[in-house]
Amino acid sequence: MYVEIRGVEYLSVTELARRAEMKAVWVQSGRRVRIAGDGRYIELEVDSREASVDGLRVFLGEPPRMYKRTLYLSKIDAERYVGPMVGEYGRSTPQPVKVVALDAGHGGRDTGKVNARMKLFEKTFTLDVVFRLKKLLEAQGFRVVLTRTEDKYIELPDRPAIAAKHGADLFVSVHFNSVEASPQRVTGIEVFTMTPQYQFSTDDYKREGTDQARQLNPGNVHDVWSSVAAFQLQRRLLADLKTSDRGIKHQRYAVLRLAECPAVLVEGGYLSNDAEAKKIASPAYRQDLAEGIASGIRAYASTVAQARRSK
Ligand SMILES: [Zn+2]
């Protein structure tokens, strides 16, 4: 069922479509395939790491490849990443979502990203969003754990440890972004999950992190449900904030690497962009962001409940 292409295990899109009870068709002959069914779809492009699920940008671990006139998607991308986003969870059973851990990025001596012109610090806004989110989630019946409640630095490995100690079922780390090149052009939201074992992170185009790729990390146990959570969060955030879609990506961030439950890291906008920084500095935007994340968490929780019922 699987074929090996350039040392990577691949699955045909026909087989992925069959499993997900969808249909795979060429939308651009020899170039783009659409796997669709039940109002959901995955679009894949030959040799491109950028794909889309229901119109959301998703960065694959491996580019889809042509083999004997059929398109193939890497087994890991199919089974742990985009498959789960359209409801193909394999054999994994999710844990019901009762306790949510919220991690406000940075703190204390670590300011995070800075907009020096406007004197804005990432650490201030991450904490503010987490407080807003806690209120929203508690009103909806979730139990909430915060990794920090003041302007204090918490070591990175301690953050997932705090979540685990309180029995968190989902870990959400909140951050704001920055770019060096063309900062006034780049805006929007991106959501990260832990890079699966044997894959390279989204920004590692040169595939330099071979040793890291070989390693199995605690966070990888939850690849399937982290992908579902990232998808639900990005979908709700883009619908609510109507901002640009920077995509769902993989990175071996310490908080994701060490998480003992499904985990995502949300980058809620660019402080390096003056117009977006001004928005981030406004309580109204931060409330919208918190509401978007809360509604993504709710969507994730109901997806989990549904998957458990159908087991
Ligand atoms: Zn950050």
List strands and helices in order, with pairings:
Layout: E1 2-5, E2 8-12, H1 13-19, E3 23-28, E4 32-37, E5 40-45, E6 50-53, E7 56-59, E8 65-67, E9 70-74, H2 75-80, H3 82-85, E10 99-104, E11 114-115, E12 120-121, H4 122-139, E13 143-146, H5 158-165, E14 170-177, E15 189-193, H6 210-214, H7 223-241, E16 245-250, H8 254-257, E17 263-270, H9 274-280, H10 283-309
Parallel strand pairs: 10-13, 10-14, 14-17, 15-16
Antiparallel strand pairs: 1-2, 2-9, 3-4, 4-5, 5-6, 6-7, 8-9, 11-12, 15-17
The chain binds zinc ion.
Zinc ion is lined by residues 105-106, 112-113, 122, 175.
Strand content: 25-35%
Query: Hetero groups bound?
Result: zinc ion
Please state the CA-atom Rg, rounded to the nearest Å.
19 Å
Number of strands: 17
Rounded average pLDDT? 96
Unreliable stretches covering 5 or more consecutive residues: none
Question: Helix tally?
Answer: 10
Helix percent reads 25-40%
How many domains would you count in the coordinates? 2
Order of helices and strands: EEHEEEEEEEHHEEEHEHEEHHEHEHH
Keywords:
Copper Amine Oxidase, Chain A, domain 1; six-stranded mixed β-sheet; 311 residues; Aminopeptidase; 27% strand; binds zinc ion; 10 helices; five-stranded antiparallel β-sheet; alpha+beta
In short:
The protein has 311 residues and is of the alpha+beta class.
Kindly describe this structure.
With 311 residues, this protein is an alpha+beta fold. The chain folds into 2 domains: 2-85, Copper Amine Oxidase, Chain A, domain 1, CATH 3.30.457.10; 99-309, 3-Layer(aba) Sandwich (Aminopeptidase), CATH 3.40.630. It is 34% helix and 27% strand. The chain has a 6-stranded mixed sheet, sandwiched between helices. Strands 3-4-5-6-7 form a 5-stranded antiparallel sheet. Zinc ion is lined by residues 105-106, 112-113, 122, 175.
